[in-house]
Design brief:
Oligomer: heterodimer
Order of helices and strands of chain A: HHEEHEEEEEEEHHHHEEHEHHHH
CATH class of one domain in chain B: Alpha Beta
Largest sheet of chain A: 10 strands, mixed
Number of helices of chain A: 12
CATH superfamily of one domain in chain B: P-loop containing nucleotide triphosphate hydrolases
Shape of chain B: globular
Strand content of chain B: 25-35%
Order of helices and strands of chain B: EEEHEEHEHHHEHEEEH
Helix content of chain A: 40-55%
CATH topology of one domain in chain B: Rossmann fold
Helix content of chain B: 25-40%
Strand content of chain A: 15-25%
Structural class of chain B: alpha/beta
Distance between the termini of chain A: 27 Å
Structural class of chain A: alpha+beta
Radius of gyration of chain B: 18 Å
Number of strands of chain A: 12
Chain lengths: 403, 244
C-alpha cells in the first residue's frame, strides 16, 4: 500500500495547489536558464548565420558588436586581392528607432553586399530576398512588420519584401536587411539643412586659405555633393567578412591579413568568443545568480511545505510507529511525496513554460541539457527539502498517540 | 488471575515508573506486579492519575519502566533494559486500542486494517482478505471502503479493534476504548474484547472507568497512586453479575 499516494489522494486540493505553486517557481528557474540560452543564441545568431571564415575589423578594436569599428569600403577590394580569398563582403550594422503606426519601431539594420549577397541565407518565412539594389527591406517578424509595408528611413521609403524568423540582434532587436548602400544611406543620413550648412562651412574653410582664392572653381566644387569630391573619403563600413577558397590554408590567409597595420582579424570562433564575453557574460552571471537564489527559495518553500505536511501527520506517524512500522515506511511516505511534488512540479513547469515563454519579450530557449540539469537539481532539492520533515518524523515517539 | 506456571501471556514484576524529578517528581507505578493468562480478559480500574494508562504503555513497550521485569509470551523483554526491538515486538505480538480510534484518516476502514498486516510483511492480497474477514467478524464489513470520517464512533472503534487483531497478537492493550461511546455501543465493544480473548486465546487488558460492563471481565484490578491491587470486591461483583 502506498501511503504517500493515499495521503495525496485524500488531500488532493492542497497537493494540486502546492504543486502548482512549486511548478510556477520552477518555471521561473527554467525561464531564467532559457533566457540565458536565448541571449547566447541571439548574440551569436548573426555570426553563426553569415559563417564567415574571418572578420576583418578596424585595428585595435574588437569588432562591430563590441565597439565602433570603421573601415574604408575599398578594404573589401584589398582583402579580395589576397590569394586564397573567395569572397569579401563589407558588413554594415547599426540600430534605428522610428515611429511606425504610432508605435516605436526598433530595427538593427544589416547591409548586404548586393548583388553578390541578396540574403539567400536568411531564414525566410514569407516573401522573398532582396530583388533590387535599392528601397527593399527584409525584416524579422518580431518587428511586427508585414509584407508590403512601406517604412520611411532617412530620405527614402523602403518596402518590406520578405520576413525572417528568429533573426534578432544581440540586444534583442529585430533585424532588418537592406543592400549595403541603402544601409549606409540610412546610417549617414543628414537633414537637408545640415547638408546645406556643411557645404557652406566647407566653402568658407576653402576661402579662408590661399587655395580658395587662387582657384575659385574649387569653391564651386566644394559646394556640391560630398560624394563627388575626391578629397573626401567614401563612407565607412563596420567590418569585412572573409570567405576562404576551399582547399586553401585559412591560417595562412589570416596571417597575411594580420600583418596589415590598419586592421585586426578574428576567426569565426574568435568573434563568437568576443561576443559571448562582451555581451553575454555579465547577463549570464546575473541570470545565474537569480537561478541560484530561486533554487534556494524553491528548496526553502518545498521544505516548509513538506514540513507542514509532516506536522499534519505527526499523530498518524506516531500511530504507525506504535503499530510497529519500520522507519523506511515513514521515510517513504515523506520522501515519495517530496519527489512527486518536485517531479510533477517540474513537468507542469515545462508545459506551462512551453505555453508562456513565447510571449516573453526576449527569446527563451529550453535545451535538453538544461532540462536534465534542472531535473537533477529538482531531485536534489526534493530530497533536501524532505530532510526537515523526515527529521521531525523520526523524532516522534509512539506514545504521542496518547496525547 | 493467571496461571503463573506457564500459561501467562504477560508478566510484569516490580514495575516502577517515575516521571520528572525533584519537586515535579510523580511516581506513576510503584512496584506493580501483574500477570495475565492467555484467553483471559482483565479490567484495570481506578481514578484518573492512578497510573492505569502508564501501566499499559509500560507493558506495551511504548514507555519503558525505571525498574522491574517484563516477560511477554515467555520471552524476557525488559529487565532494566529492553531486550528486544520494541517496535518489531509490538508489530508481532501486541495490539492496541485507545479511547480515540486513531485510525489513519486518509485510509479506508479496510486499508487501516490491511496496513497493520502489510507492516508485518503480509502480502497485500492476503492482508486485504484477512482485513475483510475481521471487519465481517466485527460487523462493519459494509463500511470497509469508507474513510474514518464517514464512520460513526462505534464503527471507528470496531475498525480499531479489527486493526489491533490484524496480526493475531497474543496481548491486546485497550485504554478506555469505550469512553467515547454510548452505553450500548460501549458494552458491545467490551463483549467484543471478551470474545476475542476467549475465541482467539489472547490476553486482553482493558483500562476502564465503566463498572456497568464488569461481567465481561474474568478479573479486575484496582489502581490508586501507582499501586495495583487485586480487588476481591470487584471479583465478587464480577462473579455475581455473571451468575445473573
Amino acid at each position: 500500500m502506498n501511503l504517500a499516494l493515499k495521503d495525496i489522494h485524500h488531500n488532493m486540493g492542497r497537493f494540486v495547489l502546492t504543486t502548482l505553486g512549486i511548478s510556477l517557481l520552477l518555471m521561473i528557474v527554467m525561464g531564467m536558464g532559457g533566457i540565458y540560452r536565448g541571449l547566447i543564441e541571439e548574440a551569436t545568431l548573426l555570426v553563426d548565420r553569415v559563417n564567415a571564415d574571418f572578420w576583418v575589423v578596424q585595428k585595435g578594436t574588437r569588432g562591430p558588436f563590441a565597439e565602433i569599428s570603421r573601415l574604408p569600403r575599398n578594404m573589401e577590394d584589398r582583402v579580395l586581392a589576397v590569394p586564397g580569398v573567395l569572397t569579401a563582403n563589407s558588413f554594415v550594422s547599426h540600430t534605428v528607432q522610428r515611429e511606425y503606426r504610432n508605435k516605436p519601431l526598433r530595427l538593427t539594420i544589416q547591409g548586404l553586399s548586393w548583388p553578390a549577397d541578396r540574403g539567400e541565407w536568411l531564414p525566410l518565412i514569407a516573401g522573398r530576398t532582396l530583388g533590387q539594389a535599392h528601397y527593399e527591406i527584409v525584416a524579422d517578424k518580431a518587428s511586427k512588420l508585414r509584407i508590403g509595408d512601406k517604412i520611411p528611413l532617412g530620405k527614402n521609403i523602403y518596402t518590406v519584401v520578405g520576413l525572417t524568423h528568429r533573426m534578432s540582434s544581440p540586444s534583442g532587436d529585430a533585424m532588418a536587411f537592406l543592400t549595403r548602400s541603402d544601409a549606409q544611406a540610412v546610417q549617414f543620413d543628414l537633414p537637408g539643412e545640415a547638408i546645406r550648412n556643411e557645404r557652406t562651412a566647407r566653402v568658407n574653410r576653402l576661402q579662408s586659405i590661399d587655395l580658395g582664392s587662387i582657384q575659385p572653381q574649387m569653391a564651386e566644387r566644394a559646394a556640391g555633393n560630398s560624394s563627388e569630391i575626391p578629397a573626401l573619403g567614401t563612407s565607412m563600413v563596420s567590418a569585412i567578412l572573409v570567405y576562404v577558397m576551399p582547399g586553401y590554408d585559412k591560417a595562412a590567409v589570416a596571417s597575411k591579413i594580420a600583418t596589415w597595420p590598419d586592421v585586426s582579424i578574428y576567426s569565426h570562433d574568435g568573434q563568437r568568443k568576443l561576443l559571448l564575453m562582451g555581451i553575454v557574460d555579465r547577463s549570464r552571471r546575473q541570470l545565474g545568480l537569480f537561478r541560484i537564489l530561486l533554487i534556494i527559495v524553491s528548496c526553502i518553500i518545498m521544505a516548509l511545505i513538506l514540513y507542514t505536511l509532516t506536522l499534519d501527520k505527526l499523530h498518524d506517524i506516531a500511530m504507525l510507529k506504535l503499530m510497529g512500522a519500520r522507519n523506511r515506511i515513514i521515510l517513504a511516505l515523506i520522501l515519495q511525496q517530496a519527489l512527486l511534488l518536485g517531479g510533477l512540479g517540474l513537468c507542469i513547469a515545462y508545459f506551462l513554460g512551453q505555453w508562456v515563454f513565447p510571449y516573453f519579450p526576449r527569446r527563451v530557449v529550453i535545451m535538453q541539457e538544461d532540462l536534465i540539469q534542472l531535473s537533477i537539481i529538482v531531485l536534489l532539492i526534493s530530497v533536501l527539502s524532505s530532510l526537515l520533515g523526515i527529521f521531525k518524523a523520526l523524532r516522534v515517539e509512539p506514545n504521542e498517540v496518547l496525547s | 488471575m493467571s496461571d503463573i506456571h506457564g500459561n501467562s501471556v504477560v508478566e510484569g514484576v516490580g514495575l516502577t515508573k517515575v516521571y520528572g524529578s525533584g519537586n515535579t517528581e510523580v511516581v506513576a507505578l510503584r512496584n506493580v506486579t501483574l500477570r495475565v493468562a492467555r484467553g483471559e480478559i482483565v479490567a484495570l480500574l481506578g481514578p484518573s492519575g492512578a497510573g492505569k494508562s502508564t501501566l499499559l504503555t509500560v507493558l506495551g513497550l511504548i514507555n519503558p519502566p525505571d525498574e522491574g521485569r517484563i516477560v511477554i509470551e515467555k520471552k524476557l523483554v525488559f529487565d532494566g533494559q529492553l531486550r528486544v526491538n520494541a517496535r518489531t515486538f509490538r508489530r508481532k505480538h501486541l495490539g492496541f486500542v485507545f479511547q480515540k480510534s486513531n485510525l489513519i484518516p486518509f485510509l479506508t476502514a479496510a486499508e487501516n486494517v490491511q496496513l497493520a498486516m502489510e507492516i508485518n510483511d503480509a502480502s497485500p492480497r492476503e492482508a486485504r482478505s484477512r482485513a475483510m474477514e475481521l471487519l465481517e467478524y466485527l460487523g462493519v464489513a459494509d463500511r470497509a471502503n469508507h474513510l474514518p470520517s464517514k464512520l460513526s464512533g462505534g464503527q471507528q472503534q470496531r475498525v480499531a479493534v479489527a486493526r489491533a487483531l490484524a496480526n493475531k497478537p497474543s496481548l491486546i492493550l485497550a485504554d478506555e476504548p469505550t469512553a467515547a461511546l454510548d452505553s450500548v455501543r460501549g458494552r458491545q465493544v467490551m463483549e467484543l474484547f471478551r470474545d476475542v480473548a476467549h475465541e482467539q486465546n489472547a490476553g486482553v487488558i482493558v483500562v476502564t472507568h465503566d463498572h456497568r460492563a464488569l461481567d465481561v471481565f474474568d478479573h479486575a484490578f484496582e489502581m490508586e497512586d501507582g499501586f495495583l491491587r487485586v480487588s476481591s470486591t470487584l471479583d465478587k461483583e464480577i462473579a455475581r453479575r455473571k451468575k445473573i
